Amino acid sequence: MTVAAATALRANPDRNFRYWLLTPAIFLLLLVGLFPLFYSLIVSFMRIDMMDTDTSFAGLYNYANLFSDKRLWAALGHTLLITVIALPIELVLGLAMAYLFLEKMPGRQIFISLLILPTIISPIVAGATWRLLFDNRYGPINQVLGWFAGHPVTALWTINPQLVYPAIIFCEIWQWTPFMFLILLAALSNVDRSQTEAAAIDGAGFLRTFRRIVLPAIWPVMAIAILIRGLDLARIFDIIWALTAGGPGTMTETISVYTYSQGFKQFETSYTAAIAFLVIVILTVVVVWAIRRMGLAK
Amino acid sequence: MKNLPFHRRKDVRLALRYLVACLLVVIFVFPVYWLFIISFKTPDEIFAFPPVWYPKSIQFSNYFVLFKDGDAKTVLNSLILATVSTFFAMILGTIAAYSLVRFKTGGENLAVWIISQRMMPPVAIVFPVFLLYVYFGWVDTFFGLILLYTAFNLPYVIWMMRGYIEDIPLELEESALVDGCSRWAVLWKVVMPMARSGLFATAVFTFVFAWNEFLFALVLTRTEVATYTVQVTHYFGGQSNFWAKIAAMSVLGTIPVFIAVATMQRYLVRGISMGAVKG
Amino acid sequence: MSDLKITGLHKYYGSFHAVKGIDLEVPSGEFTVLVGPSGCGKSTLLRTIAGLEEASEGTVEIGNKDVTWARPGDRDIAMVFQNYALYPYMNVFENIAFGLRARKFPSAEIDKRVANAAEMLGIGPLLKRLPRELSGGQRQRVAIGRAIVRDARLFLFDEPLSNLDAQLRDDMRVEIKRLHQELGRTMIYVTHDQIEAMTLADRIVLLRDGRIEQLGSPLDLFERPANLFVASFLGSPKMNFIPATLSGNIATLSDGTKLLLAGKREGKAKQAVILGIRPQHIALSGKRVATGHAQVKVTVELVQPTGSRVQVAFPLGGKSIVAELESRGVSKPGEKISIDIDMARAIAIDPQTEKVI
Lengths: 298, 279, 357
Prior knowledge:
The complex is a heterotrimer of chains A (about 300), B (about 280) and C (about 350).
Chain A: H1 3-9, H2 17-43, E1 47-48, E2 53-54, H3 61-68, H4 70-100, H5 108-115, H6 117-120, H7 123-133, H8 140-149, H9 161-189, H10 193-201, H11 206-234, H12 238-243, H13 255-264, H14 269-293
Antiparallel strand pairs in A: 1-2
Helix pairs in contact in A: 3-14, 4-9, 4-11, 4-13, 7-9, 9-11, 10-11, 11-14, 13-14
Chain B: H1 6-40, H2 43-46, H3 61-69, H4 73-102, H5 107-119, H6 122-136, H7 142-166, H8 170-178, H9 183-194, H10 196-212, H11 215-220, H12 228-234, H13 243-263, H14 265-278
Chain C: E1 2-13, E2 16-27, E3 31-35, H1 42-50, E4 57-62, E5 65-66, E6 77-80, H2 92-102, H3 107-121, H4 136-148, E7 154-158, H5 166-183, E8 186-191, H6 194-200, E9 203-208, E10 211-216, H7 218-223, H8 228-233, E11 240-247, E12 250-253, E13 258-260, E14 271-277, E15 282-284, E16 293-299, E17 302-305, E18 309-316, E19 319-326, E20 336-342, E21 347-349
Parallel strand pairs in C: 3-8, 3-9, 6-7, 7-8
Antiparallel strand pairs in C: 1-2, 1-4, 4-5, 9-10, 11-12, 11-14, 12-13, 14-21, 15-20, 16-20, 17-18, 18-19
Helix pairs in contact in C: 2-3, 2-4, 3-4
């Protein structure tokens, strides 16, 4: 037996199997995940725009510009506004709905199936639907409001600066509360009943039982749901696009909409890359902070 | 209510729960209902004041127009993209998850890196991806979008399947190995069947993600593989003349997900709770 | 001819040294039991034989072929797992046929073999059922059926009975013993249960901390343990250990009792030892003392009837000693009795090295 054959024998024949399994997935993630990111990073230090394809390095020029870009900070503000209003409402409403359907009742499954419809349709379709609902003249919402007001209502929901945020947030809540509801229902169903029953026997009220027993039990799931929804809200694009396209003017422009318009309308290639990195940095910091804060880190 | 006997109190409670439940269903389902009926209305009914709450007759003319103009083809595009990318994401994601779970390949760091890919805001990479696709000539091709959707869904699939694969008893795989199966055969004959419900649940979500995706489709498609979400936004304009088309196109694009979710409901609910509980 | 030969086998998990140099040769047709307390490396050893764990050092030969780096499927082995490892989505027939299908046997041959195995194990009527429709004992039979249908050179059992209740465990033990006699195959069986080890084994390999403590027939290990660990691990109730001072053949206990050990002993003038006496080797005194036996008067402290026998505890040499006596003439606590110790079967252990002198 030759030396080479002898060494070949002295190894697990399946030792590379694990890497074969991972190779295609990692390759794809590198190709459309890491590579574009890396490319962006380099481009963000150049000065490429529609007029100019100057590929010499411009240092922190684009990053310096970020600070004086009022539209950018306004967009971040809009994103934050939508997030901090919509997220708590979705959470509380979802939790209340989960409690409503926690106990068995005939037809429960049918109710649940109907209630999750909004979540499975495309955000673009959701936005389009609410555009139809909000129409000032032919939409049913003004019509119903008119019944209560006693006179015809012609609110311009997607145009009037005072109404446009409520419109977006309504739509957002309508679409995603069922998602919260479904996750929290699953979490609540997993709470050990003997614990809540013991608390009831001990005379603890609903709030006390919830704070002391239910909340700690469902917290890991709830925290992840908050994290998922928070991230989705932070990069909200589709619903805005369909409902207001960022308007009126740039009043409802979120960070995603702004980045898109810088890249694909103004063709500010390098500057867009810099914005993208700012967004990634902010999101990473917030997510890491949130994971620590919510006690999700292992 | 306090004064009522116990069983009466329970009845009242149940009645109240039904009342609230019905109210919720009206609120959450009405917009979907409105979308559907607009698609069946005549133009006169759509632009009637006050609004027509239910159409006098079901009109399919709005749909005929979409088919006649070829706009309905975008639904077929979405179907191809979502189905094929889901298939590949499931296969590649599941075998990758298997490697992470069974062989601890790359340790916890690799797993965290993979899930962190999911948190990436799409808008941050869509521009460089666009440039990459222009360079390779992948814009407006099925290949390009399938590649992207597959990659886009991989972190989710890997994350979910990790949980399901962890639950498969190691002995089943070892027994198959002793019985003469190759490593690959163990994957197909033991791991996949054992993770079946997990595969279905994850596949539904993967399909819905790809089906509903908008931003990448907006940037990376033109005419050949434009998806229905992009098509819907083409009808947005200052005029409300396209209402019928918006509604009909939306309904066409929504029915397949409804069917997918309805047939997979059993797995879906478990999928959501499992994914969340396992994190 | 040997079916299994292990040479210088080591297994490390990171810095943990699980198997510390095992040499073992198993002759064809022998039933070998690997036994030891949990964490002794017996399962690791078995899994390394199966190829489910990689050997860190050393070689494994099965049927005179070096299989150290062969895949489990290429080793000509069959294995029965602790949790049965039945595929829940296949019926009993398919479960048993799985290994044959993996090896591309013709379907007529598969039918014949599965039917044979099923008959042998009395599970013929269950072939169409799914595993979840079976009881624990039936599942275990299917798991065994899946192994024997393969007709492999080496059969490996990894604690196959530990999930069964006591009654079933006894039944299955008999079944496995019968199978071994019928098939005449080489079997390696891992258990932590010393009764299983004693009843099943042609040869016991007693392991501790990744090393072989002693290897031999069950009776060998029971009667002639090599050290304190082996002596205390085997036998129920456990062997009694009494500190004593040995000079020549006479062992003196701390309370002054003198016992005469059998056989000639060379030795230092005085030596501290631990005297090992099995409860089964103590009896109630008869009319006369046989040679090599010693008679002692003791006061009964505790009585535990087990049915056919009775366990009696009494103080002797500063220790509480257990004896297994015949049921008739059961004594009560406080009663003084005279006992007869079979000193020919007693052992003396060096307290320093823990080896039997």
